[in-house]
Design a protein that fits this description.
This protein has 334 residues and is mainly alpha-helical. The protein has helices at residues 20-33, 45-48, 55-71, 89-98, 103-107, 110-118, 125-139, 153-170, 215-223, 240-253, 257-263, 269-296, 298-327; strands at residues 7-12, 38-43, 80-83, 145-147, 178-180. It folds into two domains: 7-181 and 298-327, Rossmann fold, CATH 3.40.50.620; 215-292, Orthogonal Bundle (Tyrosyl-Transfer RNA Synthetase), CATH 1.10.240. The protein is globular, with a radius of gyration of 21 Å.
C-alpha cells in the first residue's frame, strides 16, 4: 500500500510497435485503473534483450513506447512511468530470487518452450530465467494486483510461489500479488487469422493494426481482413473473422454486439470493413498526434524519465534493502 492505495504493476516490452490489441486490451484499462491504484508502468527493456536488438533501433523503440503510454492517457504525474533498466533493483532482486526458484518450475514455463522454438539459434539463460525477472518486477514494489491476460497467469503463479517460499523462510517480506483480469478490454484477434491473437511480431504485415499506422494503411488492412462466405454480420463462433471485426467496432464505439449487428443488417462485408477501418482511424488520430508532440519535446520527455526513475528507485530500494538484510548481506556504509 502507498498512501492508502493498493499498488499495481504492469509493463510492456520495448520491441516492435504496439497494436490495436495492446491498446484496446491493455492500455485503455491501465488508464481506467490510474485513479484507483498507485500504478507503476514500466517499459520492460531488460526483458527485451533475450532476443538480439539493434542498439539504436532499440533505444528509439523504448522511447516510442514510453511516449505511447503517455499519449494513450497515462498521466506521468499520477503514474510512475519509467524504463526498467533505469532501476537497478529489478536486476538485483532477480538474482536473489533466482536462488529461490527451482529448475523444475522454470522447465514448466510454456513461454520458454514457445520462444525457444522461435529463436532456436539463441536459447540463452536469460530466456530461461525470464519469469524470475518478471517476479522481481512485481515483488519489488510490493505489488497488490497485476493486470494479466490468460497467457500470463502461469508467470504470476510462479511469482506468488516464489514470494510465499521466501516469506516462509524469512517472514512477511513480500506482498503476495493477485491477478487483475478486467471485465472490460477486448481480446483483439489477427485480421488474417482470427483464431490467433493480434501480435506486434506477426510476420504478415496485414494481420495487425499498429498504433502508428496512418489512416490509409489502417483502412487498407481492414479491407483485406479475413471474413467468410456467409455474408452475414453476426457475432457467433462459426464466423471468427466477422466476430473479431464486430468486437473491434464495439470496443471503439461502445456499442453492444447486438447494436452493431442491427446497424449493419443487410449490408455487405465491404461496407462493414470500411466502417470499422474508418472508426479505428478516427479513434487513433488524437493518440498519434499527441505521440508525435511528446517525441518532439525532448525536455518534457527527459523530465518525466528522470523524475519517474527516481520515484521507482525510491520505492524499489525499500524492498531491496529489506530483502538484502533478510538473506544476510552486509549493509552499505552511508
Amino acid at each position: 500500500m502507498i498512501d492508502n492505495k493498493k499498488v499495481l504493476f504492469s509493463g510492456m516490452q520495448a520491441t516492435g510497435c504496439l497494436t490495436l490489441g495492446n491498446y484496446l486490451g491493455a492500455l485503455q484499462n491501465w488508464v481506467k485503473l490510474s485513479d484507483e491504484y498507485e500504478c507503476f508502468y514500466s517499459v520492460v527493456d531488460l526483458h527485451s534483450i533475450t532476443v538480439r536488438q539493434d542498439p539504436a533501433e532499440f533505444r528509439q523503440k523504448a522511447k516510442n513506447l514510453l511516449a505511447l503510454y503517455i499519449a494513450a492517457g497515462l498521466d506521468p504525474e499520477k503514474n510512475c512511468i519509467y524504463y526498467q533498466s533505469h532501476v537497478s533493483g529489478h536486476a538485483e532482486l532477480a538474482w536473489i530470487l533466482n536462488c529461490f526458484t527451482y529448475m523444475g518450475e522454470l522447465n514448466r514455463m510454456t513461454q520458454f518452450k514457445d520462444k525457444s522454438a522461435k529463436h532456436a539459434d539463441n536459447i540463452n539463460a536469460g530466456l530461461f530465467t525470464y519469469p524470475v525477472l518478471m517476479a522481481a518486477d512485481i515483488l519489488l514494489y510490493q505489488t497488490d494486483v497485476v493486470p494479466v491476460g490468460i497467457d500470463q497467469l502461469q508467470h504470476l503463479e510462479l511469482t506468488r510461489d516464489i514470494a510465499q517460499r521466501f516469506n516462509s523462510i524469512y517472514g512477511d517480506v513480500f506482498t503476495i500479488p493477485e491477478p487483475f483480469i478486467g471485465k472490460t478490454g477486448a481480446k483483439i484477434m489477427s485480421l488474417q487469422d482470427p483464431l490467433k491473437k493480434m501480435s506486434k511480431s506477426d510476420e504478415n504485415p496485414n494481420a495487425s493494426i499498429f498504433l502508428t499506422d496512418d489512416r490509409d494503411t489502417i483502412i487498407r488492412k481492414f479491407k483485406r481482413a479475413v471474413t467468410d462466405s456467409e455474408a452475414m454480420i453476426k457475432h457467433r463462433e462459426e464466423q471468427p473473422g466477422v466476430s473479431n471485426l464486430i468486437e473491434i467496432y464495439s470496443a471503439c464505439t461502445g456499442k453492444s454486439f447486438e447494436e452493431v449487428e442491427k446497424e449493419f443488417d443487410g449490408k455487405g462485408y465491404g461496407d462493414f470493413k470500411l466502417a470499422v477501418g474508418e472508426t479505428v482511424a478516427d479513434m487513433l488520430t488524437p493518440l498519434q498526434t499527441r505521440h508525435a508532440e511528446i517525441l518532439k519535446d525532448k525536455a518534457y520527455l527527459d523530465g518525466i524519465v528522470k523524475k519517474n526513475a527516481e520515484k521507482a528507485q525510491y520505492f524499489s530500494n525499500k524492498t531491496l534493502r529489506k530483502v538484502q538484510k533478510k538473506v544476510g548481506f552486509n549493509e552499505k556504509v552511508r
